[in-house]
Amino acid sequence: MSTNTVWQKSSFSDPGAQCVEIADHNGGILIRESDDPDVVTTTTRAKFAAFVAGVKAGEFDHFAH
Questions:
Q1: Which pLDDT band, with edges at 50, 70 and 90, does 11 fall under?
Q2: What pTM does this model have?
Q3: 27 CB-side CA count, 13 A
Q4: What b/e string do you get for 23-32 counting C-beta neighbours within 10 Å, with b at 16 or more?
Q5: How is 1-65 classified by DSSP, letter by letter?
Q6: Are 47 and 27 in contact (CB under 8 A)?
Q7: Which tens digits make up the pLDDT trace of 35-48?
């Protein structure tokens, strides 16, 4: 990960709130929480796409309550 990594968060996030951020890195995906930016998880594009499909399908809605 380089210092010029471009992190992105959802436009649904509160600008001052703690949120999950993602970044593209060497063909994979980096994931971190904005309140703990030194802890970074990596995953593949395929796994991230599967997760996003599950979110869109409502499979994780019960975690948001």
A1: confident
A2: 0.82
A3: 0
A4: beeeeebbbb
A5: --TT---EE-TTS-TTS--EEEEEETTEEEEEETTEEEEEEEE-HHHHHHHHHHHHTTTTGGGG-
A6: no
A7: 899 999 999 999 99
